[in-house]
Amino acid sequence: MKQQGKSTEQLHRINENIRGVKEVRLVGENVEPGVYPIEKALEIAEEQNLDLVEISAKADPPVCRVIDYQKFLYQLKKREKELKAKTAKVIVKEIRFGPQTDEHDYNFKLKHAQNFLKEGCKVKAYVFFKGRSILFKEQGEVLLLRFANDLEEYAKVEQLPILEGKRMTIQLSPKKLK
């Protein structure tokens, strides 16, 4: 826990750790925004019992905010958490076939794939070759291409069938519905 605090202090210099600058651009609540000498900015923060936190060190002059440092860290974590929640999570569902998959089994797995694609998941279908069934590579490829063709209205092919060891895989991603 302490290591995390140290890394954030390295990102944001506070109070007396702001060195090597003569003046800073001050922003924050209860502060008149503007460019102040570093001593005056520290004095303003001290009067309000708050910290002077360097927000942007690369700016000329550096931008500092008068705020409670713990509150500032809390706001940063909260913002990062919100951004993380907004990112889309890609779920990949796998469907396994044998080289001589029956018609009924094929249709059953096709319906599952349609449901997965409607939910917005990617589908990775593969034919697993056991023992000597590797001789039926063409049958596996035909099966996967037929599978992709039957799902044409729900998905687009992301990766054509390729053989990786004893598996031949195809990857499908859902189409955007209008």
Descriptive report:
With 178 residues, the protein is of the alpha/beta class. The protein folds into 2 domains: 2-83, Translation initiation factor 3 (IF-3), N-terminal domain (Ubiquitin-like (UB roll)), CATH 3.10.20; 92-174, Translation initiation factor 3 (IF-3), C-terminal domain (Translation Initiation Factor IF3, 2-Layer Sandwich), CATH 3.30.110. The chain is built from 5 helices and 8 strands. The strands form 2 sheets. A 4-stranded mixed β-sheet has the order 2-1-4-3. Residues 1-9 have low confidence and may be disordered.
Secondary-structure-derived class? alpha/beta
For the record, the CATH architecture of the largest domain stands as 2-Layer Sandwich
CATH topology type of the largest domain = Translation Initiation Factor IF3
Q: Mind summarizing the main beta sheet?
A: 4 strands, mixed
Which band does the percent of strand residues land in?
Answer: 25-35%
CATH class of the largest domain: Alpha Beta
* Helix-strand string: HEEHEEHEHEHEE
The oligomerization state is single chain
Shape: rod-shaped
Determine the number of helices (DSSP H or I, runs of at least 4 residues). Answer: 5
End-to-end span in angstroms? Answer: 47 Å
Compute the gyration radius: what is it?
A: 29 Å
The CATH homologous superfamily of the largest domain is termed Translation initiation factor 3 (IF-3), C-terminal domain
